[in-house]
Design brief:
InterPro entries: NAD(P)-bd_dom_sf, SDR_fam. The protein is about 40% helix and about 15% strand. By secondary structure, the protein is of the alpha/beta class. The chain folds into two domains: about 220 residues, NAD(P)-binding Rossmann-like Domain (Rossmann fold, 3-Layer(aba) Sandwich), CATH 3.40.50; about 140 residues, no CATH class. The protein has a six-stranded parallel beta sheet with strand order 3-2-1-4-5-6, with helices on both faces. It has a four-stranded parallel beta sheet with strand order 7-8-9-14, with helices on both faces. The chain has a three-stranded mixed beta sheet with strand order 10-13-15. α3 runs parallel beside α4 and α4 packs parallel to α5. The longest helix has 29 residues. The radius of gyration is 24 Å and the shape is globular. The structure holds NADP nicotinamide-adenine-dinucleotide phosphate. NADP nicotinamide-adenine-dinucleotide phosphate (NAP) binds next to α1, β2, α4 and β5.
Length: about 375
């Protein structure tokens, strides 16, 4: 491995770890860490045989000496001056799904040791190597440290106490590191995977809940944490009164500027509103105010505004209270004739475009979203 740039994934298995490793392997040599070689061996072989470059190192992230030894091996392979382009902390302790009064100290400690102490050891080892990348001109994106979270990172359900405590703590660690290292050029993020991945280890969960109840390990969704590398937009979904939509967004834009976020995706996702004059369509005035605020800030600050223009949301436009559809008579009427491009979008389509734009750092300004002619 002659490259002086690499990505490292701590906690590689058949789920998120493998998905992220495959995606990073398209851009960098990857180093895969897990306690057992069998967790990464097949993947290392697959990546190396398909033109990428991968190495596995047997590592226990909950053990300080083991993490130190892993990074010594990395330095020996890539050189002491090599930079880490991206690091993902993906290891997670055991989920002891038990009533609290039956939980043993060892069961409580296990996720704490892997997620919290492991996150600490890994971050302390990798951050100096990520900081090296901030001056590295070969890097396309800012160096990134990402943590994978779960629903339990935000919500602590009954019987989840040991796991959720550790997952909350990992999120806290990520948040603190983001505040400290963001201004120094390292993007730190925490990505919540809100669902159950269909893995041998989770075959008992939701087993009678139908084919879509779990996330397919082959789903591109699982590589999403890797796509966050190099992109840290703030995506606003405010829907509310004028104060929230205008003043609330201005507050959020100011917060983004303070945090050094490079892009702000405004909550418009709207049909084309730029040609409208103020007061011509009061609902769009809000977007014009936010656009003007962003444009003013773009002149003095590093923030870039992003506006995704979709068609009219079909779920709203076809709602019976608007009168364009009479469901009983199965009649649809709309204004204009075939020469008027009345363009529609769906919530699902808009969400697809928004997520694509969110992970593409080069998508700025006005971007076309889903626009389907109403006849279609
Ligand atoms: N699985 C799900 O349904 C699900 C759902 C939502 C969120 N998540 C989150 O997604 C992330 C990844 O989960 P995943 O299930 O997709 O896992 P995965 O990527 O399939 O595998 C994770 C790997 O971490 C390794 N690991 C565990 N403890 C370790 C330690 N102390 N040191 C080094 N490596 C260790 C394990 O290999 P070894 O045993 O060989 O060490 C395991 O194969 C976690 O943050 C998890 O909380 C998972």
């Amino acid at each position: 491995m002659a490259s002086r740039i690499y990505a490292v994934i701590a906690g590689v298995g058949p789920g998120t770890g493998a998905a992220v490793a495959r995606r990073f392997a398209a851009a960098y040599p990857v180093v895969l860490l897990a306690r057992r070689a069998e967790s990464y061996d097949t993947l290392v072989k697959e990546i190396n045989e398909s033109g990428g470059s991968a190495m596995g190192i047997a590592t226990d992230v909950a053990n300080a000496d083991s993490v130190k030894a892993a990074f010594q091996t990395i330095d020996e392979k890539f050189g002491k001056d090599a930079s880490c382009a991206s690091a993902i902390f993906n290891a997670s302790g055991k989920l002891a799904l038990k009533p609290f009064l039956e939980l043993t100290e060892a069961e409580f400690e296990n996720p704490y040791n892997v997620n919290c102490k492991g996150g600490f050891y890994f971050s302390q080892a990798v951050l100096p190597r990520l900081l090296k990348g901030t001056t590295q001109t070969e890097l396309k994106y800012p160096p990134t440290l990402l943590f994978t979270g779960a629903t339990a990172s935000l919500k602590s359900s009954a019987k989840f106490s040991s796991f959720a405590v550790a997952k909350f703590a990992t999120r806290a660690l990520a948040q603190s590191l983001a505040r400290e290292f963001g201004p120094r050029g390292v993007h730190v993020g925490h990505v919540v995977i809100d669902g159950v991945i269909d893995l041998p280890s989770s075959k008992e969960y939701l087993k009678d809940a139908g084919p879509d109840a779990k996330i397919d390990p082959a789903s591109p969704l699982l590589a999403l944490p890797a796509r966050w590398h190099g992109s840290s937009p703030t995506l606003c979904c405010y829907l509310g009164d004028n104060t929230l939509k205008v003043d609330g967004q201005k507050t959020l834009i100011d917060a983004c500027i303070d945090e050094g976020d490079p892009r702000y995706m405004a909550s418009d996702w709207s049909i084309e509103f730029r040609k409208l004059k103020l007061c011509e369509h009061p609902a769009k005035d809000l977007m014009k105010h936010v656009q003007a605020y962003l444009e003013a800030k773009e002149k003095d600050c590093k923030i870039k505004g992003v506006h995704v223009l979709n068609g009219a949301f079909i779920e709203v436009a076809f709602a019976s209270f608007l009168g364009s559809v009479d469901a009983d008579a199965t009649v649809f009427g709309y204004y204009g004739d075939d020469t008027v491009p009345l363009e529609m979008a769906t919530y699902a389509g808009a969400a697809r475009y928004l997520s694509e734009v969110a992970v593409d750092p080069s998508a700025n300004g006005f971007v076309n979203g889903e626009k389907v002619p109403v006849q279609d």
